[in-house]
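To illustrate this point, what follows is a protein record of this kind.

___
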Amino acid sequence: MIIKNMRYVKSLVLLGAVLLAGNELMGAREFDDLKTGDLIFKISGGSEFSDAITSATGTDSLLNFDHVGIIEKTDKDSVVVIEASPRLGVHITPLKEFVDETVTINGKPGLVVKRLCGDYPFQKIIERAKTFIGQEYDWWFLPDNGKMYCSELIYESYLDNEGKHIFQTVPMNFHANDGSMPDFWIELFEKIGEEIPEGKPGTNPNDLFNSNNLIEILRFF
């Protein structure tokens, strides 16, 4: 009986190694498809902040996003994400770490990669995005205040060959689908001593995701 169990354990270990190797190879192939300037979107994570974002900007679709970052492919095996996160502000994250911090759907990362197609200066876009590194997260959600939230980083970084914004702003909405104001926003803006910037020009991951300027390249799940 002990011998049979040992064989069973060894079989599981071997199977796990094979599956791990397969997943690594799959990941390598997927990463080969990425290009500098691609946008990577995260499915909503279920936190209070995430729920407040998607309740105001999401749709009835299961594809609701609360975060977006910029892909930079430094070489075949090195991919990073330039992002503005609540914890670290604008910074660079290795793609593996970005993936590991994402909620899963059926055991796979809830990530979608989209690409801006056309003759755009992607290297200049990356260089511009990096000029914002070190800025703190923009909990005020206002333009030109020396702070940056995730989709604002995309808006400010993506300029065309004439220096014009590629993506457009929209009047911001903080209300939930039922018209109520989530407690998260009320408490946040009371804490920072500002009015909720309802109707002010801004951006959000869901509107970016649905932009006609983007095509889907890769879906992890």
